[in-house]
Amino acid sequence: MKVLLTGGGGRLGTELRALLPELGAEVVAPASAELDITDAEQVMAVVRRERPAVIVHAAAYTDVGGAETNRERCWAVNVAGTRNMAQAANAVGAKLVQISTDYVFSGETGNYCEDDTPGPVANFYALSKLVAEEAARAAQRHLILRTSFRPREFQYPVAYSDVFTGQDYVDIIAPLIALAVRHSPEIEDEVLHIVTERKSVYELARRRRPDVREGTRAEAGVTLPGDVSLNTDRWESLRRQWPAAPVRA
User: Fold this and answer.
1) pLDDT tens, 12-30?
2) How far apart are CA 22 and CA 198, in angstroms?
3) 3 within 8 A of 181, measured Cβ to Cβ
């Protein structure tokens, strides 16, 4: 199975480039200079040349704070970029796997299921990713994966104890995403939630940075949702049908 991966040099993309071949996938991951996702003509040319079975769209503008002041760039990457990938996927009959986020939910209740109505979003980044989901649905064959991950180490001195999430470290999440990508042609669902158990960001941080200071989201400088934990029952039911995901050391 040939996979075209956008964002291959990013946090998740780097992991997927190593994991997907172990699952029998051929991965093509053009650098951003070769594949500018905001350039519709370039996207179409690359996709027509490679003719992948699956396009994994992991490239995104992910700076939540920066999105508030750089809205035009955030929108161009997250929304227009996804629209371009969907159009190209249709041109070659590829399935589009869109990497989305738990931030599409308001964060008022947590334990969100795939069929729950997203929004109202808490910030501009979340808005752009929610609209990107709609752009991805323009692909005749698509799978939206809502997830959340951090680098292998917690990179901040403070972590919020009043922000709850299913987020985990990228080396935990990436093997699950890789498994979903490998089986994406046979997955009938249009949306899946792939995260781990509900926890506070502070709890998550302490697993790999025991000296992290406890803080609250009032310190963030940008509006953050309180509880965006996701229900993963649908994903867990699917993954039990397949061999275990590979683990990248």
Assistant:
1) 999 999 999 999 999 999 9
2) 29
3) yes
pLDDT averaged over the chain? 96
Half-sphere exposure of 96 (CA within 13 A, CB side): 30
The whole-number pLDDT of residue 243 equals 79
- For residue 132, name the pLDDT band (cuts at 50, 70, 90): very high
The rounded distance, in Å, linking the Cα atoms of 196 and 193 is 9
Q: Which residues of 81-115 are buried (b: 16+ CB within 10 A; e: fewer)?
A: bbbbbbbbbbebebbbbbbbbbbbbbbeebebebe
> Which pLDDT tens digit goes with each residue over 108-117?
999 999 999 9
- What is the identity of the amino acid at 114? E
The phi, psi pair for 76, rounded to 5°, reads: -60, -45
Crossing angle of helices 40-50 and 81-92, rounded to 10°: 30
H helix runs in the chain, sequence order: 11-19, 40-50, 64-69, 71-75, 81-92, 124-136, 170-182, 201-208, 233-239
Which candidate in 125, 160, 169, 202 is catalytic? 125
Has 156 been annotated as catalytic? no
